[in-house]
């Protein structure tokens, strides 16, 4: 909701200051892209602990359920 208010306020202030409609649209596109990338970055930082926890859980499960490699047994070797 605050993003929408920001865009509307941004649009109105640019129109009041006398910037052309094309300049306003270009500024809105750039501001939207910057806000989108900032939101993605903030979301990544917010989810980082959970992502690290998921990686650690998968690593532990793989370590526990690792296939057992049979040990080399010298007594079962055939001599030709």
Note the gap between the termini.
81 Å
Overall form: rod-shaped
Number of domains: 1
- β-strand percent reads under 5%
Describe the sheet with the most strands: none
What order do the helices and strands follow? HH
* Uncertain stretches: none
Strand count? 0
Query: In DSSP terms, counting alpha (H) and pi (I) runs of 4 or more, how many helices?
Result: 2
Give the fraction of residues assigned to helices.
over 70%
Average pLDDT rating? 83
**Given the helix and strand composition, which structural class is it?**
mainly alpha
**CA-atom Rg in angstroms:** 29 Å
Topology (elements, then pairings):
Elements: H1 2-16, H2 21-64
Helix pairs in contact: 1-2
In brief:
With 80 residues, this protein is mainly alpha-helical.
Could you characterize the architecture of this molecule?
With 80 residues, the protein is mainly α. 74% of the residues lie in helices and 0% in strands. The protein has one domain. Helix 1 runs antiparallel to helix 2 (21-64). It is rod-shaped. The termini are far apart. The chain crosses the membrane at residues 7-34, 40-61. It comes from Citrobacter europaeus.
Keywords:
single chain, 0% strand, mainly alpha, rod-shaped, 80 residues
